[in-house]
């Protein structure tokens, strides 16, 4: 399937999915974080949606933090690696991301096309998985598939904002049910709180690390090589190897701590 760069209609549809809770079941609501789930019958892949109120963080800061891959290496302790591969347009690029799964599950990675759009008091970032000829699946990772993942940031005043995170990912591999449940009950709320804390520390960090470098806002600063959209195809889940991890026992699994080194 050819890759389509999202248009205004795609961003509007994503925003509507974030704001409209019809058909969603709330699974968690505590400490300013809400998590909803929705099972998509057609694909058998669960959708997760999260919302967090950020009372002392501007929408602009949230937007910067979610774009800044240099800073992500500071706060995203589940991440193994991330880097930008190349740019498609002034507001679309292709990137790589890998993250740790609880042992003995295999670690996962993605290649995604990301697109972003500032809309007045709203900021949107969305992605889905693509195939890039120079970044095929790796031997030691399971290549997961983002069907649709993204953020909606809404400004609620001069120093107050709301962050929505919506994701529909096929992790590949027949994962045990406890992994899926743990994602909505534990991993997702923790991830949202981690982003919030990272945003609180970002202005001070950014002042010391290329404070004027924001290529997501100033395209003329972007030094990534150009990619032709025709060289990309949509990454379909059914074309990837399926790993059966359904027998992994929760008691035997190892959940790394936030400050544990990569294993």
UniProtKB/TrEMBL annotation:
InterPro entries recorded: STARD10_START, START-like_dom_sf, START_lipid-bd_dom, START_lipid_transfer
Gene Ontology biological process terms in this record: lipid transport
GO cellular component: cytosol; membrane; motile cilium
Location of the protein in the cell: Cell projection, Cilium, Flagellum; Cytoplasm; Membrane
Gene3D superfamilies named among the record's database cross-references: 3.30.530.20
Entry keywords, A to Z: Acetylation, Cell projection, Cilium, Cytoplasm, Flagellum, Lipid transport, Lipid-binding, Membrane, Phosphoprotein, Transport
UniProt region (Disordered), positions on chain: 242-263
Pfam family, one: START
CDD domains associated with the record: START_STARD10-like
Domain of life: Eukaryota
Annotated Basic and acidic residues bias: 249-263
A GO MF term: lipid binding
Broad class of the protein's primary localization: other
Location of the START domain: 20-204
Name the record gives this protein: START domain-containing protein 10
Gene designation: stard15
């Amino acid at each position: 399937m050819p890759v389509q760069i999202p248009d205004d209609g795609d961003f509007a549809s994503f925003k509507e999915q974030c704001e409209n809770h019809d058909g969603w079941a709330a699974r968690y609501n505590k400490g300013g974080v809400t998590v909803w789930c929705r099972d998509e019958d057609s694909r058998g892949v669960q959708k997760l949606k999260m919302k967090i109120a950020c009372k002392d963080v501007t929408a602009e800061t949230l937007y910067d933090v979610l774009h800044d891959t240099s800073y992500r290496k500071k706060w995203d302790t589940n991440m193994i690696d991330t880097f930008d591969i190349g740019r498609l347009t002034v507001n679309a690029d292709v990137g790589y991301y890998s993250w740790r799964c609880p042992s003995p599950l295999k670690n996962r990675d993605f290649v995604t096309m990301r697109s972003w759009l500032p809309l007045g008091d709203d900021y949107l970032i969305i992605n889905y998985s693509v195939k890039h000829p120079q970044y095929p699946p790796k031997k030691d990772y399971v290549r997961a598939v983002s069907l649709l993942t993204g953020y909606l940031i809404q400004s609620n005043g001069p120093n107050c904002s709301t962050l929505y995170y919506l994701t529909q990912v096929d992790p590949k591999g027949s994962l045990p049910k406890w992994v899926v449940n743990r994602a909505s009950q534990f991993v997702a709320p923790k991830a949202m709180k981690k982003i919030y804390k990272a945003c609180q520390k970002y202005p001070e960090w950014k002042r010391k690390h290329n404070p004027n470098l924001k290529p997501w806002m100033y395209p003329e600063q972007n030094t990534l090589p150009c990619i032709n959209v025709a060289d990309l195809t949509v990454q379909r889940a059914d074309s990837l190897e399926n790993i059966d991890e359904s027998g992994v026992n929760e008691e035997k699994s190892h959940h790394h701590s936030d400050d544990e080194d990569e294993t």
